[in-house]
Amino acid sequence: MTEHSPGVQQYIERGKALEAERAARRTAMRHKKFDTIAVHGVYDMQTATASEGSIIEPVYLSSAEHYDNSDHLEAALSSLMPSWIYTRIANPTIHYLEETLALLEGYRFDGEASAFVTASGNAAVFLATVPFLSHNGQPMNIVAQARCYGGTFQILSQRHGVERGVEVRWVRDPSNLDEWASQIDANTRFLYGEMPSNPSLTVLPIAQVAAVAHAHGLPLIVDATIATPALMRPLEHGADVVVHSLTKSIASGGHSMAGAVIARHGLPSRIGPDALRENFAHYTKRVLARDYGPSLSPLNALMVLNDLRTLRHRMDFLSRNSMTVARYLEQHPKIEAVLYPGLESFEGYTLAQQQMWLVDGAEDGSAVNRYGHLMSFMPKGGVPAARKLFDAFQMIWRATDLGRIKSIATIPAISTHQQQGETGRDLAGIPAHLIRFNIGGEHPDDIIADLEQALDAI
Ligand SMILES: *Cc1c(COP(=O)(O)O)cnc(C)c1O
After folding, report:
1. pLDDT, tens digit, 9 for 90 and up, residues 400-434
2. Potential cystine with 87: which of 91, 321, 355, 401 (Cβ 3.0-4.6 Å)?
3. pTM of the entire structure?
4. Pocket test for ligand 1, best of 244, 248, 400 (most atoms within 8 A of CB)
């Protein structure tokens, strides 16, 4: 044990007391319901008393923290006590968001989980994967679902693949366990999936794929942006690391970009250090995020917290709206196919039904499936019909965005998934005439009326 001066030791003791208070706050909230956690997080009355009594989490826009004296500075900067230090490293407002997300993703999960937030979902995808790719003199490969977000496809195939020399082994059908298992070898570093995927809504059997990963001592990383913790929590199903673009349904208001990485403590990994396995989120935040610097603005952290408070209710009613719209589109004679996990006709329906449930059930407490508010569909008549339909929307926004409280459509082949090229899109299962459709909070009658008049145009 290193000897510390009595002055530094005093701050180490203060740090232990602070850690104990934080742990007690977390434990107290873990026993509350999902909505209560979403509304309060860990910002309690004692914390408020120390913050001028503010009942809403204050936004600490300060770039740095002041220290009482050199002993305090030494203890803080040597990580001997919890400290904010500098907003690139940590910040109280960001901490409130991180703790809330860890509690929500870890809801009813018997292990421990920690979270860290980033300035965008892409930064979260990068930071959830790059710690597993440090060199050990051997070649490396990763096994990933090809049906994933375009930005993720680029990070894996270009940034990790081309630029770092990591071999990317794509899984075409993520429900095929043999396809996952047969691509793993001694040099594999992780398995990566998206559930459900953007934009094809492909469904991943998380528990089964996690079992394949764990049999090889590997972590499974799952991007659950489209489901949100209100409908599905991958840790509960056996995943090790969860990625979110908070920009989407979690911050549905559309004011801020943000991302998150939430990980279980004690995850399997063939590459160290031990700190990575013990608490991946903490290690990555304290070491990699500190150095790369993708920190979120504290102001955006508060905006996300604000939207997060009503997440469960929003995902419930937006899912119900989406079901109505999906059923309308499915029966329309000008529609070739509708991809929505809640439709019985959808390939991944059974697997989605097993995994996507409204947290804490319906009003009367009964268990209900909810499938989120993203769908894709293809009109008959190929690209010309898709473009004509798209151009005819009067209320549904044309934008490369999703998760919004407003209905929005895009054509992935010429937008979000344009950069990966035709071969990449073929691999990812994105036909050129696929329209990705985010169902908003407008009355479904009005959404259907806009679709109807647009379909009349073709
Ligand atoms: C949008 C998105 C991302 C990237 O998030 P940004 O906040 O836009 O950087 C990652 N994964 C999925 C599934 C997404 O939809």
Report:
1. 999 999 999 999 999 877 877 888 888 888 999 99
2. 91
3. 0.97
4. 248
